[in-house]
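User: Show me a protein chain along with its predicted structure.
Assistant: Here is one chain, sequence first, then structure tokens.
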Amino acid sequence: MTFERRLAESQARFQALIRELRRVIVGHEEAVRGTLICLLCGGHALLEGVPGLGKTLLVKTLGQLLGLKFSRIQFTPDLMPADILGTNIIMEDESGRRYFEFARGPIFANLVLADEINRATPKTQSALLEAMQERSVTVGGRTYTLEEPFIVLATQNPIEMEGTFPLPEAQVDRFLLKLLLEFPTAEELDEILRRHLTPTALDGEEAALERVLSREALLEARRLVAQIPVAEPLRRYIVRLVIATHPDAEEAPPLVKRYVEYGASPRAALALLWGAKANAFLEGQPNVRVDDVRAVFRPALRHRIIRNFRGEAEGISTEEILQQVLERVPEV
């Protein structure tokens, strides 16, 4: 079977996945698309939004539709690394001989929701982020590989900041995308209420969802995304976009020069490249277009721009800075 045929069939399966997902999730276009992009790229996502917007429902529903193992970790200040990774426990066999057996923690899942990650101590945060990066866990000198697909969706509450431990910039940079969950519009909120009018919704009964994609089909989609071509002019465009976020760059627009302390890292360019490939896949396209790069620009860079003191004092948002970069950097 040709690459084009395999690509078209895989794209059709993902469209069916999105349709089933929309039976449960109302709104949140950026979060839904960004989560699927992370699935296709093997990256992790940082979700920012107030409680009650459906973050857990989104990840749990995806796990059901894909037949993947889902786990949720509620981060608290007393959470220890062993509570996430697992630990060796003493067991005893029939003859009375004692031995150690590894009890796996909730990190051993395909979709891991790390709820309110900034409430845990830096030591616990680092344990999770190390597992995310290495895709393995080492306990007692033995290494355990995490099964693919493996992605972490970590959430942050932008309002309650008391008693939290904000992630250092170097660790935030490890997330492929940062996705914002906005409060639903009046129409979306009305639709949410309409879907919960039935007695079964009151009893907590979940919607009957059709599993439209297998784990093997997802891994095949990843391989296809990796083969989607990116023309040289588009690669140059990605380079210009990333360089333009640095205040000392000649191409940097006025807002960057005035309000940015540090620009995006090379990892941001990779996030743009892979994110654009996955976005083209979701759009049913055989190659990457300018629109695909622009579609993932904000989610890929909003957590990688560090404003200076002046930018924070004057209330200049990262979104404003990125918008000017998009407007000022030429596509060709």
